[in-house]
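We modelled the chain as a single entity of 182 amino acids. Its sequence is:
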Amino acid sequence: MTAPPALRIYITGFMGGGKSTVGPLIAASLGYEFVDLDSRIEANEGKSVPEIFRERGEQDFRSLERHELGLLRTRERIVVATGGGALTDEGCREIIRGSGLLVYLHVPLEILIARLRGRGGRPMIAADDGTPLGDEQLRERIISLLRSREPLYRQADIVVDAGAQSPAGTVSAILRSLGALP
């Protein structure tokens, strides 16, 4: 495949949307490097994302995302899976919009709920003690988060329905969209 118009591709979407699954496949298809932003932060901090949230709060975590994105914006031939809430930070949005192409993996609510039900290690959809939320609480939390995030996700250069197809199908759709960009 011919190289896309952007040397940096950022993958966004809600947690459980497939960013960490699809991102490496896109990178491999293009001969690009893949970086998972959450994994990079965990490695640099020596702590898991839930630990960082618990000890430092969401605002400090968003600051860490912004810092890492700032470092990545000069790297070329890279695909970055952002955290599901990275776009809620204006600084993160500015870095992404100013340095690359943004791809949104849209997944319908019911599929997100099914994928996230009973999953730990996700501070934005966990109870205060870190345990997974019950079904109704999970639904309410996802709806609430999507209400604020969806308009930000929808500003992406490419929007792909990642809920109705396999990861390979999602990658194919993204690659077709990249080829169609001016």
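As a brief sanity check on the tokenised model: The chain is about 55% helix and 15% strand. The chain has a mean pLDDT of 90.
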